[in-house]
Amino acid sequence: MIAEAAYYRAQKRGFEGGHATQDWLDAEAEINALLLQTPSRRTRSH
What we know:
By secondary structure, the chain is mostly helical. It has helices at residues 2-12, 20-37. The radius of gyration is 14 Å and the shape is elongated. The model has no long low-confidence stretch (mean pLDDT 89).
């Protein structure tokens, strides 16, 4: 998920070089925040 998000960040920038690390860190933060907001199916009672 992080790799895909980083790819889309690079794509939006026109794949301009020199930003791979920042793209990855930003994507990682974005995905982590998304996952923390989503209730886990394991914690739901059925």
